[in-house]
Amino acid sequence: METEVLKTFRLTLDPTQAQVETFTRHTGAARWGFNFALGLKVAAREQWRREVQQLVDQGVPETEARRKVRVPVPKKPAIQKYLNQVKGDSRTGVLPDGTYGPPRPCPWWHEVNAYAFQSAFADADQAWENWLESLRGNRAGRPVGYPQFKRKGRSRDSFRLYHDAKRPRIRLVGYRRLRIPTIGEVRLHDSGKRLSRLIDRGKATVQSVTVARSGHRWYASVLCKVSTRIPQRASRRQRERGRVGVDVGVKHLVVLSQPLHPANATSAFVANPRHFQRAKNRLAKAQRALSRTQKGSARRAKANRRVARLHYEVAERRGAVLHAVTKQLATRFAEVAIEDLNVVGMTRTARGTLPKPGRHVKQKAGLNRAIRDVSPGELRRQLSYKTSWYGSTLAILDRWWPSSKTCSACGWQNPHLTLADRTFHCTNCTLTIDRDLNAARNIAAHAVDVERPVAPGRGETQNARGALVRPSVPRAGRQEAMKREDTSPPRPVPPQRSDPLTLLTLSPDHDRAGQT
Q1: Whole-angstrom distance, CA of residue 2 vs CA of residue 6
Q2: DSSP H/E element including 205
């Protein structure tokens, strides 16, 4: 049975210099539109705070004043309507009402596609809503901060255009050209054969395209609604391989409880390419050259592009390796078991404070760089959606289970095992095994939390912090799981029904919330 899912096809562009200038003009329009929409929201919030303060000065209790004052925060339709009223026109110099007057904002709106503004307004609405949901405690993951204005040179250059179903304007012309509204046909650096064939067979419908710059390259991410057949269960070959435990490390990228290829025992150890370590000397040289330039000069811009290109190349190489590994794991095994790693805590700095300075700060900084170079959080994210694509499932080992200190044969634990001990020696059953391989076997044997959709009233569920409601794995005397992998500080306590934060139309942020 085929189902419709949203998939993104990332195409590398090879634009001309004129098209690059058009891209830059659209990214500037999208950045301006986001800041314009966010400015109206911030102005409404400040008006709400002023009115609340006026009531408080009159003797009204603050809680009651917050409940009484209602200032609507403008959203995309209202923002678009307001912009149409105030914007100018550089072609005629006439205002929308037909009169002449002082300069108005956005007189160049006709030079870019209107969808660049509309998508920016939608992004501002989403950023504002994410902050509200995080402040109320209704959003999972790390706390979302107050929306910030986008600054040229610091924010990512990107814009999004929508597809018109009546007049298809986003389409592939052959396999090597992509037609984008207002911009025209842009040559592709790679081939769009896969997407073109899906569209020709009627199995893919274009929804939108997002053009963004990464390093020195421009990319087009074409969002499509694809009719595909998603397997409901693992294939016969996957069921024959069964479950595999994955231990993510620094010495090796991943160590598996069983080899990727049954005939090759060494394929259980996937080497760590150490992309950042290889590019470290070139990055240091480029950054020293950047520090010697004068701010605002052309040479500084050129040196900055050099540093950005090196970082971009490292990120692309790292992503390519992770995608290759995660796809093999998701397609070769029926179940993939990994650890619930607290990456934020693992990579926290050891500098300490002035009264209590940290120890071994330099060594810990090097370890943090090595862990970030492996990107264990990105590996888990890719496994989360790829296992659902290929019929396999993802199992999670409890965070506090000592996988490295426990013997995979008899269960004896060595509490004195250190990071320097690369071989596990069991004094109970005399097992001698590689430390990471021993951990991978423990992960495969004891991971129980399967990440799959749970029907109402069926199967095991998770609590708000991502731990099992009834954990069946011993925690070896450690405390209960307190947070998920992608959370660092605890989320704010959700407000009660009587809390004025839930009654205001405007932002629930206030002075006391900003201080917590």
Answers
A1: 13
A2: strand 204-214
Residue 507 has pLDDT above 60, yes or no: no
Q: Which residue has the higher pLDDT, 410 or 505?
A: 410
Q: What is the pTM of this model?
A: 0.79
| Cα–Cα dist 35/301, whole Å | 24
Residue 229, pLDDT score: 86
Judge whether 75 and 125 are in contact, CB under 8 Å. yes
CB atoms within 10 A of CB 103: 8
Calpha distance 392→450 (Å, rounded): 10
Alpha helices in 339-467 (DSSP H): 343-346, 361-374, 376-389, 435-446
Instruction: Please report, rounded to a whole number, the percentage of residues in the chain having pLDDT higher than 90.
Output: 63
CA separation for the pair 352, 355 (Å, rounded): 8
3-class SS at 206?
strand
> Phi and psi (nearest 5°) for 68?
-80, -40
Active-site residue flag, 123:
no
pLDDT, position 399: 86
d(CA 83, CA 257): 59
Q: What is the pLDDT of residues 165-177, one digit of tens each?
A: 666 688 999 999 9
Q: What is the pLDDT of residue 482?
A: 41
Does residue 268 contact residue 437 with C-beta atoms inside 8 Å? yes
What does pLDDT average to over the chain? 84
Residues 6 or more apart from 132 whose CB is under 8 A from it? 507, 508
When pLDDT is cut at 50, 70 and 90, the band that residue 479 belongs to is: very low
Q: Which residue has the tokens 């620094």?
A: 250
Separation CA 95–CA 107 (nearest Å): 9
| Annotated catalytic residue within 247, 449, 451, 485 | 247
Residue 451 a catalytic site member:
no
What is the pLDDT at residue 2? 80
First-to-last alpha carbon distance for the chain, in angstroms, is: 50
Distance, in Å, from the CA atom of 36 to the CA atom of 104, rounded to the nearest integer, reads 13
Give residue limits of the domains in the chain: 1-229+491-516, 240-402+445-451
* Annotated catalytic residue, options 436, 449, 451, 485: 436
- Predicted confidence band at 132 (pLDDT cuts at 50, 70, 90)? very high
Tokens of 384: 């989360």
Please check whether residue 203 is in contact with residue 43, taking contact to mean a CB–CB distance below 8 angstroms: no
Q: What is the DSSP letter of 250?
A: S
Catalytic residue of the set 339, 340, 373, 485: 339
51 as an active site residue: the answer is no
Burial tier of 368 (Cβ tally within 10 Å: 0-12, 13-18, 19+) = middle
Burial per residue of 425-457, b for 16 or more beta-carbon CB atoms within 10 angstroms, e otherwise: ebeeeeeebbbbbbbbbbbbbbbbbebeeeeee
Highest mean pLDDT among 13-17, 443-447, 495-499, 501-505: 13-17
